[in-house]
Amino acid sequence: MTLGSSLDAGNAKSYGIFNHEIPECRAVKADLYTSIAGNPVHKGHMGMIAVAIEGLKKQHIEVENVYVSLSYESYLAHKVKSENIKIRRENQTREIKLPLKVWLERDTRVKFLREAIKESVDKFNGVRVIYWDDQEDGESDHPESYAALVQELTDRRIVFLCGTDLCESMQNWGGKEGCIQHAAIITRANESPAIEEIHTDSYSRFIFEGAAEYQHYSSSAIQKERKFELLPTSVREEFARLHAEAQL
Tell me: the pLDDT tens digits for 182-226? Predict the structure, then answer.
């Protein structure tokens, strides 16, 4: 298969060199890496992982491990602060006020992530999904963390898992982000990432349509609309308390 051509498999497409290396008689083994803000982590994050595992399996790629990291602290703090400034400004002209966003500290996000993984284990078909701390040596963004994991697991194929929003924001995959050799991109309804623009001769890209039940999940919507039922059961009460405290 040549770069820029596609292989349709239901709601999946694949591009690049990975397909050349799949023996007819057995699956290629690989690991997934994904990074989320997790503010808060929710069922949609776990659904994205499950879709990627199943989608890659249909492409004859057997996922053995999934490594999940969390966005670094200063990025998330700046993002939440900026969004709350905007919300406060909008609330000055609103009759019904929008809730401010809560910024979860890293230890809390780690705890919520581990609880979410525990509650969703039946969705992963036996694949090991774990939290991976990519910030031990300082703050690290998505491509840097991917590169670090590739360097650490030299005998493994690592597939970077992301949504179309992150895919399209990382325009220069051949530059600083050129370390991302293989990627699985999960789309929402009516989304179609322009992946032809980010190909090189040594990259593989897999596109999977997200499950319908997770199409409208986002951490922002959960906070804005107080949809705490989309959080792991064991952390809903704690998050509701933290969210309420942020409004004071």
Answer: 888 888 766 665 554 444 445 677 888 887 777 777 898 899 999
> What is the pTM (predicted TM-score) of this model?
0.84
Give me 35's structure tokens: 């990074």
Q: Following DSSP, what letter does each residue of 20-86 receive, concatenated?
A: GG--SSSPEEEEEEEEE--TT--HHHHHHHHHHHHHHHHTTEEEEEEEEEE--HHHHHHHHHHHHHH
Residue ranges of the domains in the chain? 7-246
Q: Is the dihedral of CA 228, 230, 233, 235 positive or negative?
A: negative
Q: 183: helix, coil or strand?
A: strand
CATH code for the part of the protein at 7-246: 3.40.50.620
Asked if residue 36 lies in contact with residue 71, where contact means CB atoms within 8 angstroms, the answer is yes
Q: Report the C-alpha gap between 236 and 242 in whole angstroms.
A: 10
